[in-house]
Amino acid sequence: MRCIKCGEKAIMELPRHNSAFCKPDYLEYFETQVARVIRRHRMFDRNDRILVGVSGGKDSLSLWHVLARMGYKAAGLHIHLGIGEYSSLSYEKALCFSRQRGLELFTVDLAKEHGMNVTELSRTLRRAPCSGCGLSKRYILNREAYERGFDTVATGHNLDDETAVLLGNILHWQIRHLARQSPVLPSTGGRLVKRVKPLFMLTERETAAYALLHGIDYIVEECPNALKAKSLLYKDALARIEAESPGAKQRFLTHFLQDAQPRLQVGADDHVLRDCVACGQPTTAELCAFCRMWRQASERAEKRKRYRETASAREMKTAGEQS
Ligand code: SF4
Ligand SMILES: [Zn+2]
Ligand SMILES: [Zn+2]
């Protein structure tokens, strides 16, 4: 297998483009793809301050790396989710990456801010960890970007993530979600910061190769909760289709964005955004979903604490009466 550009030995084959590249030409291919997406979708320019959501995985660190290499003003935000060893290691990778390259990293610790990590939140609310985690990450990224004066939030979602979400949204006919699934979500004013996904045309495998070739030390382990997430099933199904028909994932997403999504957008998002009465962040209701979730979690935790105190007081009283 030879590089299609220089004829040297190729290290990366890309069946969906019917091509193969040597190391320098692969790195150039990757960066050209990112630059093209940023330009075509008018994501940001050199004057913008970009806040990258950094988990410590290959996608977010590759994104941060490529933006910094291209000369964009990109800082990172890591949210400590408190998912056991996975979160500690993720933080270590993000911190190490930022220190080695002299890039600015902000951190938010969910448990320190709200008294509960993702695991405790999920137990308290009796709902899947990913729902509270996803909501918290979206909210905190926007809030931190707004409060710290950033123009854009960038996340490392890749082609595999985006097509899995698309398939899930179609299977459940989530019209509102489909209407909003886009590589660019503009700020519609107020405290809503523009959100972009510069890697959305690159696959997980391509991002992993970019990270490895640049010697980026990222967390290889997946979040333990990802195993239970439906998105893995959708990714598997799409990978099987892709193996039989290279380029299927890219066509699925690009045709959706070009042909279907503009029609879905008409009249789909007729909600007016206003400020949450508790935190001031943008919402369509009086209280935003994040505040509602954490209010419910602390009420339940308080109720449980009171129940436990009553039960132990009763036990002590019974023990006292028996002695
Ligand atoms: S898999 Fe779920 S719980 Fe784990 S980081 Fe992702 S959204 Fe959060
Ligand atoms: Zn080459
Ligand atoms: Zn709120």
Question: Can you tell me about this structure?
Answer:
It is a single chain. Strand 1 and strand 2 form a beta hairpin. The chain has 323 residues and is of the alpha/beta class. It folds into two domains: 12-270, Rossmann fold (3-Layer(aba) Sandwich); 273-323. The radius of gyration is 22 Å and the shape is globular. The relative contact order is 0.13. The chain contains twelve helices and ten strands. Bound molecules: iron/sulfur cluster (SF4) and zinc ion (ZN) (2 copies). One zinc ion (ZN) binds next to helix 12.
Low-confidence stretches: none
Number of helices: 12
Range of strand content: 5-15%
Written as H for each helix and E for each strand, in order along the chain, the element string is EEHEHEHEHHHEHHEEHHHEEH
Q: Give the beta-strand count.
A: 10
Task: Estimate the mean pLDDT confidence.
Answer: 94
Strand adjacency order, main sheet: 5-4-3-6-8-7
CATH class of the largest domain: Alpha Beta
- Count of individual domains: 2
Strand pairing plus helix content: what structural class? alpha/beta
Q: Helicity level, as a percent range? A: 40-55%
CATH topology of the largest domain: Rossmann fold
CATH homologous superfamily descriptor of the largest domain: HUPs
Tell me the radius of gyration: 22 Å
Distance between the termini: 84 Å
